[in-house]
Amino acid sequence: MMRVYALSALAVAVLGVGGTAAYLALAPQEDDRFAQCRESAVAGGAAQIGGPFTLVSETGETVTEADVIDGLSLVYFGYTYCPDICPVDLQRNGEAIHLMDDKGIDGVKPVFITIDPNRDTPEQMAAYTDFMHPRMLGLTGSQEQVDAAVKAYRVFAQRRGDDPQDYLMDHSGFTYLMAPGEGMLEVFRREITPEKMAEQLECFVANY
Fold first, then answer.
1. Which helix (H) or strand (E) holds 207?
2. 82 is in an annotated binding site
């Protein structure tokens, strides 16, 4: 079974490329208009998460972080051949957006960035994301492009197995809420329910 690194309620250490620990912080500030929406309180600096990237969308277009993070964006890193963790996490993300859709609340874009560009072609990403939510955007690219995005988001991603096609990927399993000009607003751990995620996202939309 794939290893997933758990996020505590009070602190998180996200393993970066090469195993370097990066510490985040989302402690509410006095002038933080999203303070009532946050539930993460972790040590370090939230500004460490996110940054420039150039990737290829599921429709084959080259996109940058400015094209993708153009509003509230729910960003998850994984891969389509993941046997258990990624499908559960992405279905939860998609269900949270569906719950908001049912209330007529728009404004959050679900994003899925692969850590396995060797197998995850734009076509593969499109089919996968369409199943999770019709508005979910799948992103892939060259290995170098994906590595840069992984590094920017301090994601742990490591291949396990020598077979060129039949292998697994160990990776961190957080979902990040990003916004242009704001950076990371919230980090969601695996245990959160679709209902609770939708509730928090609605708060962020209302205050964005």
1. helix 194-207
2. yes
